[in-house]
């Protein structure tokens, strides 16, 4: 995981501007003026960084003030790794008045290793019918020639024309399925979108990115040569998740989708079980079936939808193997891993689940840009979710 | 510093003078780039007093000067050097009065008989204006020089361009004529030549061996802005492609001139235009695209369709978007397509030249990795953010090999502390200095029209048909198809 640099507060120069009821042409003019202002300040102090470098447009769409603040924090933190222009749009379509309020923030700073970095944030509050044509606000503000990441906080309107037009301007779509209000339906819709446009515009999901620790632990277990055989002898998997209802199964389904798509399993059928548990059966090859169980469990220290445990049973070469990774009661960021292979005594380990900030997760997404593993996992996970309906 | 001179602006009460010429001259005054004795004599049909003209000039400088705030002292001096004479262009007597006024002002201000005429009038007025200047003896260089600046468009087709050139050359020598295409006065346009011929590292790869294609975009977010009547007769092909866009083609494709002087530079540009392969009638549907905008959204504002604009024929077939694929048939550019597109009501104002290079011959890092990255490209941005970018692949800092396209950017705005002069300022000074390097020569204009005329004639026959595009988009679908047919796509500027 990449860690982000802190800033040197004494080497940060900023320029600010704010106006209500503006036109986009005025905003564009002001952005240029602020760039010039920072550049001209170089005259006073040669040691300060050159203010022009940009490798990313981060377009963040927020539904409310809270989401906008989160986007601001992430954009600011991200800037030390990806010099960027952030376009932050807070949308209020229900307002009667068509209006644009703008807040511009531009800063030039140096990372501890002396790397000059520039960060620009153009925050627009868009009200009324203009929210339907935000693409016409975004396009002129994009820095040309650098990738554009569209980060839609909250609930992206995946089938809206306005959203699709914005997507056409983007090189990556980032969402957080954990914050969807109706995660079941929206995840299925997201999978449909990925199937339709995923080759042109890759999609990333913070929820998926937060599963990286789980995926790494499972993958590492099967990494040694002597355990590879178990990978093709898996016969049962159980995943526990926090919260009730089908919407909270998304992360668990993505994990299952990851394994199923990686190992070439085909979904045969699904069934609802007792006590919030659901079961499904995969065809894992000639005469071989893998049974999976997704189970809802209480988890006070965890957010709804989080995965709390994964258990895998496998057979290979006449030996049985069981892997269990469970969050400990002590804390949400710690897991206990138990490994039983053959007659050998159970191996128990306590491990930390790496907790990355949203900015660090976004850096990972941006570095990968296109994540075919997620795209496959999303498709298979959505198929599983749908089968449980 | 140029010699003292008088500048007569025909059409001094018009839009060009208001928005560009008077503010530019004020800015030259502010930068002390005007010669001593310099004065402007405004000449237009409006029957207004000198005081009224000065009041209008004051307003236009205050509103449109690129250097703000306005310096009151400089402005006062500037206004003191403005004079006005009502002139009806069909009135020979008015030109006699103009001659007398110029002699009077010349004597007062010791300008030695030097006069520059600026034609900021609608093109249909040019012939009469030039004839009147000739008839009044105002083009004769008895004492001092006489120069004439002619604004584009230089004609509306090859025939009218030839007629205009013939008329100009009947009254003025070619070296007295300054055909202005303000694009050539932009810093980045001039920098194309400096970039190519002032460095040794780019020119070796500037040819068909390394270059895949050249893509030129001239996009405006504006509509016709009250010029519907003019634009409906012109269209994007004649208004932009014939001049601005083809100028960019010539500067990108030209051979190194022997020297940076008018004759050498213009000779090389003309050679490029001679090498542009004329399009055959059968090629028009596959090599040209014409479009017209319908209603849509630009910069967040709802805008009407072209046919709903004031002064535009509601059944107009005029194109507001033009795209052309052309070939420069010479040794350097064999088989390298030049794609040119120009349009109104695009998502934003941008002019850029993208020189796209071929992919590496051997895929060392695998096909998948290379597909994830864009081909190398030089992007010369003319406006609004004047600068140059180089795109290349770099390794993502992590384990393994992952490639990403990154940019190396040069921006005028932040690299040079002093502001770049406005294109008109630069060109006005060049004209006063007698340097026509950045002005267009008669043969250049005619060669450009030769290429454009063939397209225009085919378009008039409906080949290809006019396509619609929504205001705020990058043009009609045909524009994308033009490149997709060759396995390429337009960049997102």
What do these coordinates show?
The complex is a heterodimer of chains A (389) and B (493). Chain A is of the alpha/beta class and 389 residues long. Chain A has eleven helices and 16 strands. Chain A has helices at 24-41, 65-78, 135-138, 161-168, 183-197, 206-209, 212-221, 228-231, 250-263, 358-368, 372-387, and strands spanning 13-19, 56-62, 84-92, 99-110, 116-127, 148-152, 172-175, 203-205, 234-242, 266-272, 278-283, 289-297, 307-316, 319-328, 331-341, 347-352. The relative contact order of chain A is 0.13. In chain A, 30% of the residues lie in helices and 33% in strands. Chain B is α/β, with parallel strands linked by helices and 493 residues long. Chain B contains 15 helices and 17 strands. Chain B has helices at residues 15-30, 50-64, 72-80, 92-109, 126-135, 158-171, 187-197, 228-253, 262-275, 284-287, 367-372, 412-415, 423-433, 442-460, 477-484, and strands at 6-10, 39-44, 82-86, 115-119, 146-151, 177-180, 211-219, 288-294, 296-298, 301-303, 321-327, 337-343, 350-357, 377-383, 387-395, 403-411, 467-470. The radius of gyration of chain B is 24 Å and the shape is globular. The A-B interface holds A 2, 23-25, 28, 32, 35-36, 38-40, 42-43, 50-55, 100, 126, 130, 133-137, 139-140, 142, 144-147, 169, 367-370 and B 221, 296-302, 347-350, 352, 372, 379, 381, 384-385, 389, 391, 396-398, 402, 404-407, 409, 411, 413-415, 417, 472, 491-493.
Defining key terms:
heterodimer, A: 389 residues, alpha/beta, eight-stranded mixed sheet, 16 strands, B: 493 residues, nine-stranded mixed sheet, six-stranded parallel sheet, 17 strands, 21% strand, globular
Total strands of chain A: 16
Whole-number radius of gyration of chain B? 24 Å
Distance between the termini of chain B: 39 Å
- Assembly form of the protein: heterodimer
Averaged pLDDT of chain B, please? 92
Instruction: Supply the helix-strand structural class of chain B.
Output: alpha/beta
Tell me the β content of chain B: 15-25%
Helix content of chain B: 25-40%
Strand arrangement within the widest β-sheet of chain B reads 16-15-14-13-7-12-11-8-17
| Mean pLDDT across all amino acids of chain A | 87
List the chains of the largest interface with their residue counts: A-B, 39 and 38 residues
The count of helical stretches of chain A stands at 11
**How far from one another are the termini of chain A?**
36 Å
Count of distinct strands of chain B: 17
- What is the topology, as strand order, of the major beta sheet of chain A? 1-4-5-3-2-6-7-8
| Major sheet of chain A | 8 strands, mixed
| SSE series of chain A | EHEHEEEHEHEHEHHHEHEEEEEEEHH
% residues in beta strands of chain A: 25-35%
Fraction of residues in helix of chain A = 25-40%
